[in-house]
Fold:
Amino acid sequence: IPDNFIRYIRKWKDHSLVIATSNGLSIVNPQNGQCQTILIPARKEILRQTNYIVDLEITSNNEIVAGSSTGVYVFNSRLQLVAKLEAGYTPEDIGKKRFLFCTGITSFSNGDILVSTIKGVMFYDHQKKIFFPFIEHINPFYRQLAFHLSQDPHHVFSLDKRNRFFCIDYIDPKNQIIIF
Structure:
């Protein structure tokens, strides 16, 4: 495993585990103990920030979605990078800016993803392998949900297995849960 600081462990295909660390991803086969390290490609100067994994999700299509300090990266079941959404940090930003981008990832049952970033909520279309602003989704229900999320940036959200969307405004002292 590339680092002792482990953020997430998720079950993956064939009983493997995906482990998110502060220095990349590991794919571990618990049956034979083999471990494969996956580093997100980046310029050498910001490689450490790019591979500081802050969130991890496995989709129903066995895609691995890793959120880091510099972006969100999607790997297919063959561990090929198929999509990315990056903040645009450069080596010149080291020491001048705080590297922060992904603040949350949640997966729909069909393999699509919602990603909360410092630039807003983005939608990942698993068929087209693209990210776009959630508010621009063609589905009216999703646009309504995106509009709700855009009104107040202080929220935590998640989906259940039936794709019901749960949202909590953590600044609101009532801590009401809104369900879509």
Summary: The mean pLDDT is 90. The two ends are 39 Å apart (CA to CA). The first helix runs from residue 47 to 50. Residues 120 and 150 are 7 Å apart (CA to CA).
